[in-house]
Structure formats: structure tokens, C-alpha cells
Design goal:
With 118 residues, this protein is mainly alpha-helical. The protein is built from six helices and no strands. The protein has a single domain, classed as de novo design (two linked rop proteins), CATH 1.20.1440. α1 runs antiparallel to α2 and α1 runs antiparallel to α5. The longest helix is centred in the middle third of the chain and has 18 residues. The mean pLDDT is 92. The protein binds iron/sulfur cluster (SF4). Iron/sulfur cluster binds next to α2 and α4.
Length: 118
Amino acid sequence: MDYESVPKVGAQLGSASVIVIDDSVNIAWLLNKTMHFFKHESCGKCTPCREGTYWMLHLTERIAGGQATQEDVDLLRSVAGQVKNKCLCALGEFSIEAVLTGLERFPQDFSERVSAAK
Ligand code: SF4
């Protein structure tokens, strides 16, 4: 595990902390907890991070709570894509890693929550 190899699997070492979860954890729920952290830590200096973390938190809240539609999931992906490569520091860029990787690798965790909303 090093700074060159971890980004290749869609993650970042960041502060070198590791969260271990088992397969009973819904990734949409975990993303919501992750976005609480990034929204709280965003200093607000640049718009993509300030607004992006706000909207990603709002959308993951709806998804995790079973109140979202597929459009909300698509919007979450779109917001993360718009933040990418537009932030002044690493925090904003790191804020989208879990979102994009989670959507790509665990789509069933999102479709479960969207289905629950119907
Ligand atoms: S990317 Fe960095 S500078 Fe920009 S708002 Fe987020 S924490 Fe502040």
C-alpha cells in the first residue's frame, strides 16, 4: 500500500487512516457518513468543494434514507464529476473518490435504496 498504487484502485491514502467494514454495510450509507466528514472539513474557499460537498451530502442523505430516485443517484455522479480537478486543495479532490468508486463498484447498494423509495 503506497501513494502510487492506492489511487489505481479508486482510493486515496489521505491521512493514512483505514476503515474496515464487512459486506453487511451498505455503501450508500457509508458514503453518507463519509460526506458528513468532507462537508464539515470543507473550508468553503472554493466553489466546487463548498457546493459539491453540500450537494453530495444532501443527495447521499436522501439515498441512504431510502427517499431518493434514480435521478438523485445520477445527479450524485454528475456533481462528483463536476468537482473533479477543480478544487484548490486535496480535500475537495478526495471528497469525490469514495462517491465515484462506490457508484462504480457497488451499484446494487444504490439500486436497493432507490427501490426502497418506490
Ligand atoms: S478544496 Fe480545499 S480550499 Fe477548496 S473549499 Fe475545499 S478545503 Fe477549502
